[in-house]
Amino acid sequence: MTKKELITQVATATGKTQVDVSLTLEGLISTTGKELAAGNDVVVSGFGSFKSVIRAGRTGTVPGTTKTYSTDDKRVCKFSPAKHLSDTVAG
Questions:
Q1: Which of 21, 76, 82, 83 counts the highest number of beta carbons within 10 A?
Q2: Residues 16-31 pLDDT 10s
Q3: Whole-number Cα distances in Å, 89 to 1, 7, 46, 47, 79
């Protein structure tokens, strides 16, 4: 499902215009991104939780050579679905 298809289906289900749903979705995405960048968790009951975690840097080796490299720590987003969503997907 694309973003446009999601907006269309939500607009149909709620009786709102596609413009209103699009603005709401953009606001949700923007706010979630800002909160995660600040290191805060975002929890949407019945849907799931987004967590901002630091992935530790590591050392690797370039394939075919003995040259090594290292990566820096990186902030990443992790999503954990809520039980209701997991149950819905499982059928």
A1: 21
A2: 999 999 999 999 999 9
A3: 15, 20, 13, 11, 15
Answer for the pair 7, 1: CB distance below 8 angstroms, yes or no.
Answer: no
CB 6 within 8 A of CB 13: no
Residues spanned by the domain of 73: 3-90
Residues 28-55: pLDDT tens digits? 999 999 999 999 999 999 999 999 999 9
Q: Is 30 left (phi over 0), alpha (psi -120 to 50) or beta?
A: alpha
CA torsion through residues 19, 25, 31, 37, sign: negative
CATH of the domain at 46: 4.10.520.10
Domain count, the chain: 1
Note the pTM of the prediction, 2 decimals.
0.76
Mark 24-39 as b/e (b = at least 16 C-beta within 10 Å): eeeeeeeeeeeebeee
